[in-house]
């Protein structure tokens, strides 16, 4: 699967509802609404480095190997242990408050986060 590359947010669906459900303050939600998040992925077989660069120049990098428990961090700085799995063509893992999948579809990076019945879908283009 060709996740490797540099990606920029093109569109988001369910942003407001998802962030509200996670308890993110309204002012932060508003600031982040139109952010063009940059995601940089390097991949060497089952080993990944997944970096998200926010417009505030904050960065979060998570390194993981498919099927092995690793240390991860959220943008809020919360550290946790997780195992990333490959389910078909999708990377899948559980964050503390939601389940996250990533896939390449139609040349786009599609990231889907689900918390209960609320879904955030972020589509990014290769840059």
Keywords:
11 strands; single chain; 127 residues; 11% helix; two-stranded antiparallel sheet
Report on this structure.
Helix content is 11%, strand content 57%. The radius of gyration is 14 Å and the shape is globular. It is mainly beta and 127 residues long. The two termini are 18 Å apart. The strands form 2 sheets. It has a 9-stranded antiparallel beta sheet with strand order 4-3-2-1-11-10-9-8-7. Strands 5-6 form a two-stranded antiparallel sheet. The mean pLDDT is 90. A hairpin with a 5-residue loop joins strand 5 and strand 6. The protein contains 2 helices and 11 strands. The relative contact order is 0.23.
Quick synopsis:
The chain has helices at residues 15-21, 26-32; strands at 5-13, 38-44, 47-53, 59-65, 69-73, 79-83, 85-87, 90-94, 99-105, 108-115, 118-126. The chain is mainly β and 127 residues long.
Helix content: 10-25%
Please provide the count of β strands.
11
SSE order:
EHHEEEEEEEEEE
Output the radius of gyration: 14 Å
- Supply the helix-strand structural class: mainly beta
Spatial arrangement of strands, main beta sheet: 4-3-2-1-11-10-9-8-7
Query: Low-confidence spans: pLDDT under 50, at least 5 residues?
Result: none
- What would the average pLDDT be, to the nearest integer? 90
Please tally the helical runs, counting DSSP H or I stretches of 4 or more residues. 2
The percent range for strand residues is over 45%
Distance from N terminus to C terminus (CA atoms, Å) equals 18 Å
> How does the overall form come out from the CA principal axes?
globular
Largest sheet: 9 strands, antiparallel
């Amino acid at each position: 699967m060709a996740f490797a590359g540099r990606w920029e947010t093109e569109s988001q669906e369910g942003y407001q509802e998802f962030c509200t459900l996670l308890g993110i303050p309204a002012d932060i939600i508003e600031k982040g609404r139109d952010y063009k998040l940059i995601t940089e992925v390097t991949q060497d077989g089952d080993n990944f480095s997944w970096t998200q660069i926010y417009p505030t120049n904050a960065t979060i990098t998570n390194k993981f190997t498919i099927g092995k428990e690793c240390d991860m961090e959220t943008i809020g700085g919360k550290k946790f242990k997780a195992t990333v799995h490959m389910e078909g063509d999708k990377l899948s893992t559980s964050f503390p408050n939601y389940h996250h999948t990533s896939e390449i579809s139609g040349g786009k990076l599609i990231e889907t986060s689900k918390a209960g019945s609320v879904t955030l879908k972020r589509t990014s283009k290769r840059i």
